[in-house]
Design goal:
The structure is a homodimer of 259-residue chains.
Chain A (H helix, E strand, L loop, with lengths): L9 H19 L4 E2 L1 H8 L3 H9 L11 E2 H12 L5 E6 L3 H8 L8 E8 L8 E2 L2 E5 L3 H7 L4 E4 L3 H13 L4 E4 L24 E4 L2 H13 L39
Parallel strand pairs in A: 3-4, 3-7, 4-6, 7-8, 8-9
Antiparallel strand pairs in A: 1-2, 5-6
The structure holds a DNA duplex (22 and 22 nucleotides).
Chain lengths: 259, 259
DNA sequence: CGCTGTGAACGCGTTCACAGCA
DNA sequence: TGCTGTGAACGCGTTCACAGCG
């Protein structure tokens, strides 16, 4: 019950993000109710999976009824930590960093860019989105003055580790790494095990180039793709209710594909 | 040997990309040999894992010796399909699409952008990186004239499904989706079961916003992070001081409360 | 009854121990 | 001797069947 202090599959967290996204979409369409089956279909997983994933964090539904969209959405936002504001700095304000800073949708979710940092003199001092680009060396003092929760790494891969170190040394505990490199969660030189500040740090990767290569592989080897069609809930005589609203896809069914 | 038509964990494919990246880095440093232990450390997995992953695809090492960097690199490129050229079109040439088109590193790996497409009249006709932006409606005829292997989706999320459909209808079998949406691998309206062209399509996602949210979650709940410290290969002779294994459980994980 | 919530079974991916070969 | 390659064990995440409650 509740969040047992451990063992939540990382895949479950990713799926939670997906469910949240679906709920937002449903809310925009003024759909007020949903079910594990409906969510499953939209998320391309099984209904079992949906219920299990939600069960890791609480009990959000009503038996016999399903889930209330705004309520479940609010709960998932809370679980994911999206009911607070996250102050973010971006390291690296090249093309990628600027694209990130300008990407719509981020601010929707309580992510606030509070600082932009770079080492390139051509960039430092510029104004982007109303934020002055500062020198990376000033991150430490900046972070002492302004609370910074997360750092986005958008520097060239050869500088990623050093930039990450700068973030961590400034006390930042969450790093979103866009560089095509593995960030070593430790101070690299020697194993300086000085009460490692890295032990508290979470790193997530957003890896465009890796995505390209995975795609190349699976496009070349379609037979090795994970079969994405999961079996539906096997209910005899299933009627599918709800969907009070118009214009939805009332179709049914077991989309079955096989090979 | 070689790619037997079997079950290869998707995670293994991702790790292969990582190994390849490490090998490239080693080659740049003129390191000619490596080992499963070395790769494991750099990739942050176990040596067992490295050997098993490689074993899915062949035998690339020499017992007692390890792996030859250029050789293993070449083999992994072959396995991943990176020893050929992939012709790529980009759908959506807004800020994100342009950032992708200009991102360095892509062309290194035999990915060639051959077409840019959009529906925005302000963008269509522009020249980007020497490529004229065409209207999305022209993709079909374009693809008939020029072989296109992959399509990168960089359109706003509400247009992602339709744009994906355009790609697939043009005969493209691989889609890299940058939009924060799930692409339904089927023609959405009704179940038009016309020998579903989608069945042959691979979709990979690169999801910036999802990464942000996962990061928020794990930064909020550090104790739920997947423990990234894997046991090393038990080396003879090497004494490994048992890490204090600092009590990593406590603190706020309970997202309960409140309601 | 309908759909959620959940302990238990299952199967897959990771881990392991060791066989095999330079 | 050293490190790879691999069948087998293990454990975790997914799947399942059904209990629980509207």
């Amino acid at each position: 019950m509740s969040v047992s202090s451990q063992d939540i599959p990382t895949a479950a967290v990713s799926r939670l993000v997906t469910y949240l996204r679906i709920l937002e979409s449903l809310e925009l369409q003024d759909v007020s109710r949903t079910s594990s089956n409906d969510l499953a279909e939209r998320a391309q997983v099984t209904a079992f999976q949906v219920r299990k994933d939600l069960a890791y964090f609480g009990r959000f539904g009503t038996r016999g009824m399903g889930y209330t969209v705004p309520l479940l959405k609010r709960e998932l936002m809370r679980v994911l930590g999206l009911n607070r504001t996250w102050n973010v700095v971006i390291m690296g304000v090249g093309r990628l960093g600027q694209a990130i800073a300008n990407y719509p949708g981020a601010s929707d979710y309580q992510f606030a860019y509070v600082g932009l940092f770079d080492v390139n003199p051509d960039v430092v001092g510029q104004d982007i989105r109303g934020l002055r680009v500062r020198h990376a060396d000033d991150l430490g003092s900046f972070a002492r003055a302004t609370p910074v929760d997360l750092g986005f790494l958008a520097v060239p891969p050869e500088h990623a580790q050093a930039a990450a170190q700068t973030l961590v040394s400034a006390g930042i505990r969450g790093v979103l790494n866009f560089a095509p490199t593995i960030i070593q969660p430790r101070t690299v030189p020697g194993s300086s095990d000085v009460a490692d500040e890295w032990k508290q740090v979470s790193v997530e990767n957003v890896d465009f180039l890796a995505g390209m290569k995975r795609l190349a592989f699976y496009t070349l080897n379609p037979s090795l793709r994970p079969s994405e069609l999961k079996p539906s809930e096997p209910k005899p005589g299933e009627l599918r209710p709800s969907d009070p609203q118009a214009g939805n896809s009332p179709d049914l069914a077991n989309t079955d594909v096989e090979e």
